[in-house]
Amino acid sequence: MESMLQKLIERDQMFQKGTHPSSCHSDTDFLSQRQQRHDSEVEDDTVSIHAPREQFSPREPRLSDAESDSDSHFSRHKDDSSNVNCSAALGENLTEAQKKDLYEMFGDDGLVKKSDKKEGLVLDSSQIDVLNSSYRCKEPNFLTSFSEENFDLFPVDSESEKLLQVPSLDSLIECCLTKKYGNKASFTKGTKGKTLFTQPAKMVEKIGYRGQQAARLGLVIQMYIQQSLGNLLQFLQSDKFSKDQATQQVKDIFAMSTKCLDQIGRAGAFHHIIRRSVAISDTSLYEQPNNLEFSNLPLTGDGVFGAELESLLKSRKDNKKQVEELIPDIKKKDY
Question: How many CB atoms sit inside 10 A of residue 145's CB?
Answer without folding.
Answer: 19
